[in-house]
Specification:
It is a single chain. The protein has eight helices and twelve strands. It is an alpha+beta fold and about 240 residues long. The protein has one domain (about 5-235). The strands form five sheets. The protein has a three-stranded antiparallel β-sheet, with helices on one face. The longest helix has 29 residues, at about 135-165. The relative contact order is 0.18.
């Protein structure tokens, strides 16, 4: 369940949020939503894959964190073992809110039922003594704005990938040193052969529209699949 509210000083002056890593705080996920504007940072640590929504037919991008539901191989107790945390996880328990007027500025909403809401005096205050948002909330606002912009602009990115038929389904068989096997299905990746075969005009168009860099970042990120498998081996005690 979730209980969303507009973040205000009047209602949330004493509210605190827990910012440490932890499975019970919402970090135990095998994949995190990401957007093309974030790919440069994501690709350093995580494989980037794509998934089509069976109902809408629309694609979204995911940073892979594990191979099984609820498995985050970058989470070790209360430690986040990566240089970067995807925006979609880093912003929790906040989200972008929309006013009835689409032209009005977006608002910061908070999920009051999220496990990161502190209940015993721990965590970070959201407002200072003068009623101003704390630096933490200001950082959250910046991240929400970036994620929102990335989501809005991703539509043209995926339209370009489909226009040139650059996305293809793939499956990955993961065999671990203890003999266990996992098969990843239901994802798409960029077809590098089709990308190489594009005519110069198409490549120039992708570059002009700002799509070429995130395409390259997504391809480069796949080298992290072997790193993720090694993390899985170590988690199983075989590293």
């Amino acid at each position: 369940m979730s209980r969303h509210a507009i973040l205000t000083h009047d209602e949330h002056a004493q509210l605190r949020v827990r910012t440490e890593a932890g499975a019970a705080l919402g970090d135990a996920v095998m994949a995190a939503f990401t957007v093309p504007l974030e790919f440069r940072r994501i690709q350093h640590d995580f494989p980037i894959v794509f998934r089509r929504d069976n109902q809408t037919g629309r694609f979204s991008a995911l940073a892979l964190l594990g191979f099984e539901s609820g498995e985050n191989l970058f989470l070790e107790g209360d430690r986040w073992e990566a240089d970067y945390k995807p925006l979609s996880l880093a912003i929790q328990p906040f989200l972008v809110g929309r006013a009835d007027d689409d032209q009005a500025p977006s608002q910061i909403h908070i999920d009051l039922d999220h496990p990161r809401i502190a209940t015993n005096g721990e965590g970070i205050l959201l407002f200072d003594a003068a009623g101003r948002p704390t630096p933490y909330v200001e950082r959250i606002g910046d991240m929400l704005a970036e994620l929102d912009e990335g989501h809005r602009t991703s539509e043209s990115f995926f339209a370009a990938l489909e226009r040139y038929e650059l996305l293809e389904p793939f499956f990955l068989d993961v065999e671990l040193r203890n003999g266990s096997k996992h098969r990843m299905v239901g994802y798409h990746m960029i077809n590098e052969d089709k990308l190489r075969a594009l005519e110069p005009g198409a490549v120039a168009e992708l570059h002009t529209e700002g799509h070429l860099m995130p395409i390259f970042m997504a391809l480069a990120s796949l080298s992290n699949l072997s790193v993720l498998i090694e993390r899985k081996n170590r988690r199983n005690g075989d590293g």
